[in-house]
Write a structure and sequence with these properties.
The chain has 220 residues and is α+β, with helices and mostly antiparallel strands. The chain has four helices and 14 strands. A hairpin with a 4-residue loop joins strand 6 and strand 7. The longest helix has 17 residues. It is elongated and about 65 Å long.
């Protein structure tokens, strides 16, 4: 399957989930055939959960000038200003952290249209994604996006305690649209967005958000 198929998915499930789903169905059928009812029930429940986890619903948003959407479903853990020294953008910025638990949709979406300037993957630990130190120590994938008016934002996919596979379907130089699918992290994780320091943020800590729909702020 090529990346275009994943980005423009028309199925209700993310294709990364197919191997897990097919294995679960196969094992359940085998247990049922052998008459191992208890095991068949357990594996069928697990398979149903895997199907639920890899759901990929269509998302629609209202076009608003300079609006930045959340790249992930979940709950906002943190909104704070970051100085130049500690910002991955190399300039003062605003950091928004979103935590995805295992019940959230895990398909990630582009927060604002532009061009992918850089993508850099960094191996690391697999600490629980809701911990502050997970931002610095966990395996992550940094995506730098340049907007049509030449401003930079960064989205970071961060692996978690159980989430040990980061999928990214875009490449450096790609032109991307607001709300477009760009990746997925399996089984609970965290995403962070770094915006220019003069951005107008409306996101609030503990707010629940939906990728491709919820506006977290505006570039000014």
């Amino acid at each position: 399957m090529n990346r275009e198929t994943r980005i423009n998915n028309r199925l209700p499930l993310a294709r990364e989930g197919f191997p897990f789903i097919f294995i679960g169905i196969g094992v359940t059928v085998i247990f049922a055939f052998l008459g191992w009812t208890t095991f068949a029930i357990i594996t069928s429940v697990v398979t149903i959960f895997v199907i639920y986890f890899f759901r990929d619903p269509e998302r629609h948003h209202l076009e608003e000038k300079n609006a930045v959407l959340t790249p992930a479903d979940g709950r906002i853990l943190e909104v704070r200003h970051v100085d130049e020294e500690n910002s991955p953008l190399g300039q003062p910025s605003i950091k928004v952290s979103i935590f995805m638990n295992v019940f959230n949709v895990h398909v990630n979406r582009i927060p604002i249209k532009g061009t992918i300037k850089k993508i850099s993957y960094h191996p690391g630990k697999f600490l629980s994604a809701n911990l502050d130190k997970a931002s610095e120590q966990n395996e992550n994938n940094k995506i730098t996006l340049e907007t049509i008016d030449s401003r930079e934002i960064m989205v970071i996919q961060i692996a978690g305690l159980i989430a040990r596979r980061i999928a990214c379907w875009i490449d450096k130089g790609d032109t991307v649209k607001t709300g477009q699918r760009f990746g997925l992290i399996r089984f609970g994780s965290r995403l962070e967005v770094f915006l220019p320091a003069d951005s107008k943020l409306i996101a609030q800590v503990r707010q629940k958000v939906k990728a491709g729909e919820t506006v977290i702020g505006y570039l000014t």
